[in-house]
């Protein structure tokens, strides 16, 4: 119990900016769980500030399979540029374009932001998933209030499924060589 009270006092000092002259820290704090018979301890709510660079953009990195996308968003007319090309020419399949626009549909921000991204590695499907992950993260950096809606549908979670590695003594990851009786 003594450690909980000291950590709460330290937290209050940091939040007030009195801990050795440092500025207050902007972070979310979860309420500690009270033991049986004790009154619950109130949580300290902190406003999360947007992370915007001097050019007025929010940056995030998205990943899916072997693809890595670097994404910048800024207010605009809704243009999406991938590796210097328009989205219609880079992602020709409508399903891939739909995947990329999903975060804007969930956040109800369709046509509000311009997206510039560079993608490396993987195939087109993995690259589209990486761009969607990057756009979702960048939206939460630009507007922290959208985090709940995007997290609820799973766009902020990196899909960790990757191709299984090939094992020795096997033709592929699990496929055996063809068996010959004679």
SSE layout and pairing:
Elements: H1 2-16, E1 58-64, E2 67-75, E3 80-82, E4 85-86, H2 87-90, H3 94-107, E5 113-120, H4 124-142, H5 147-152
Parallel strand pairs: 3-5
Antiparallel strand pairs: 1-2, 2-5, 3-4
Helix pairs in contact: 3-4
Can you tell me about this structure?
The chain contains five helices and five strands; from the N terminus they run αββββααβαα. It has 182 residues and is an alpha+beta fold. Strands 1-2-5-3-4 form a five-stranded mixed beta sheet. The N and C termini lie far apart (74 Å).
Distance between the termini: 74 Å
Number of helices: 5
Report on the biggest sheet: 5 strands, mixed
SS class: alpha+beta
What is the helix content?
Answer: 25-40%
Instruction: Give the overall silhouette.
Output: flat
Low-confidence region ranges = 17-27
Q: What is the C-alpha radius of gyration, as a whole number of Å?
A: 23 Å
Reading side by side through the largest sheet, how are the strands ordered? Answer: 1-2-5-3-4
Oligomer: single chain
Residue fraction in strands: 15-25%
Mean pLDDT metric: 85
Report the count of strand segments: 5
Element pattern in H and E:
HEEEEHHEHH
In brief:
The protein has about 180 residues and is of the alpha+beta class. It has helices at about 1-15, 85-90, 95-105, 125-140, 145-150; strands spanning about 60-65, 65-75, 80, 85, 115-120.
List keywords for this structure.
5-stranded mixed beta sheet, 182 residues, single chain, alpha+beta
